[in-house]
Amino acid sequence: MDYKVADLSLAEFGRKELTLAEHEMPGLMEMRRRYGKDKPLKGARIAGSLHMTIQTGVLIETLTALGADVRWATCNIFSTQDHAAAAVVVGNGTVDAPAGTPVFAWKGETLAEYWDEAEKVFQFKDVDGNAIGPNMILDDGGDITLLVHKGTEFEKAGAVPGQDSTDNEEYKEVLRVLARSLDNDPTYWTNVGAGIKGVTEETTTGVLRLYDRFKEGSLLWPAINVNDSVTKSKFDNKYGCRHSLIDGINRGTDVMIAGKTAVICGYGDVGKGSAESLRGQGARVIITEIDPICALQAAMDGYEVKRLESVVDFADIFITTTGNFDIIRVEHFERMKHQAIVGNIGHFDNEIDMAGLAKIPGIVKDEIKPQVHQWIFPDGKKVIVLSEGRLLNLGNATGHPSFVMSNSFTNQVLAQIEIYTKLDEYPIGVYVLPKHLDEEVARLHLDAIGVELTVLNQAQADYLGVPVEGPYKSDLYRY
Ligand code: NAI
To answer: CB burial class (10 A; 0-12, 13-18, 19+) of residue 145?
Structure first.
């Protein structure tokens, strides 16, 4: 069986939701109409790692409609919607959704399972059934990009460090998977890497890793930073989180948010959406920031800006959105009040020191339901932690709604086409899509919500010094 999902009998339910989502994803459906015939991704073998949700199902079926072969894993152990995974595997027999797209994802994977399944997205076969690697990567957070880079580095060095070389439980699994592949074939990852044309990366945290690699000279291929398309980060990160943060808190706890004091750590795009999400419910929202510009923005948006230490004793809800690590630590947990709720909406779980929490002497972890735990301190105080510190909007709820993901994923499709069809225009480096494509993504979403766009006349266009059809802003414009 070239797939691994929770339950194929969920496929019919998944298909119904996929069909509903298609209606809300005009950008992706336009990609199918525009490019479905010419199939610019014909011959592409895309290794994908991105939350296996209904919206991602529509993305996968758009990529296949454009000619690609796809293998898919999730990028988070709790974020898979099992009915979406099943529906993509079963397909609906049409050219957009042929049966048998290999998906390796289910809700509630262990870390070991997660990394074992991540490795499988590289295992394409040619028409004769011989093993062949992917030629494109579509990543969210950079985990499968990391596998190829680390694998290649260790192969060059001739060895993978033992699992005891790190305290990080997740990295131990990476080392285990890489050691196994190196045992089987000492040039496996080098060959996989050599076959790949490029990567398109979905999120802030993954993009950071790509720029780091480029700076240190170790990036193997060109990369398109999808996150920093305006129609991605200023929409998905902000309006998506505005929708899905409270969805996660509500489904996880059903606590009354109105009247509570909530702390949002970080006031970037995700923080801005998250703060509005809670303020919209009537919470009193306090922001923490390290960047004076974002701190000033928060203050002028009407939020109090404080240090976590000043508010940790009395706040009710704590949400991390920084993309940084070690934001909520043991010393904070110890000072929180009874039944404080703690969650993270940033990409990785290291924003909250879960390992430190587990080591507090006498503390007990008690599961209320999957992805909702109360941590009982020796004195009886309980703190509720959502999704074990992993992104709660996808762990406790279903992530962002289709319409906003259509913007993000239309950028993904355009980015895949760019690298796959115009590789010679992209020497190794990290790029954003050109402005006219960013504007095009927005344009594709206007009709669906009844927007009447004003059209420049030639004299006005000349006055501004822009073409009538755009692009309208310089790259310096910040929206
Ligand atoms: P960003 O860079 O716009 O915002 C992060 C903010 O946190 C910055 O303003 C930074 O100054 C601040 N910060 C950093 N360290 C801090 C600290 N110690 N205390 C307080 N503030 C601190 O990044 P963005 O786009 O908002 O993304 C944040 C995270 O969310 C990333 O990991 C990203 O990958 C993830 N993400 C999650 C989504 C979801 O659906 N859960 C959607 C999109 C992004």
So the answer is: buried
Q: Which pLDDT score, from 0 to 100, does residue 96 have?
A: 73
Identical fold between 8-140+142-201 and 241-396: yes
Type of residue found at 19: T
The CA 312 to ligand 1 mean position distance, Å, reads 20
Q: From the CB of 346, is ligand 1 less than 6 Å away? A: yes
User: 198-201 and 223-225: which strand pairing?
Assistant: parallel
Please check if 19 is assigned to a binding site.
no
How many other C-beta atoms lie within 10 A of the C-beta of residue 432?
19
Q: Which amino acid is at 472?
A: Y
pLDDT tens digits, one per residue of 60-80: 999 999 999 999 999 999 999
Atom of ligand 1 nearest to the CA of 240: 40
Q: If we measure between CA atoms, which residue out of 332, 347, 317 comes closest to residue 249?
A: 317
- C-alpha–C-alpha distance, residues 73 and 105, integer Å: 5
User: CATH second-level architecture of 241-396?
Assistant: 3-Layer(aba) Sandwich (3.40)
The Cα 328–Cα 318 span in angstroms is: 9
* 3-state SS, residue 262: strand
Report the Cα–Cα distance between both ends of the chain, in Å, rounded. Answer: 47
User: Tokens 């990391």 sit at which residue?
Assistant: 146
CA–CA–CA angle 91, 97, 98 (5° rounding):
75
| 168 appears as a binding residue in the annotation | no
What value does the mean pLDDT take over residues 299-308? Answer: 98
Dihedral, 252, 139, 265, 268 alpha carbons, nearest 10: -130
- Domain residue spans of the chain: 8-140+142-201, 241-396
Helix axes 11-23, 54-65, angle to 10 degrees: 80
Distances (CA, A) of 158 to 161, 179, 399: 10, 10, 41
- CATH architecture of the domain formed by 8-140+142-201: 3-Layer(aba) Sandwich (3.40)
What pLDDT, in 10s, does the model give residues 236-274? 999 999 999 999 999 999 999 999 999 999 999 999 999
SS3 category, 124? strand
How far does the centroid of ligand 1 lie from the alpha carbon of residue 126, in Å?
40
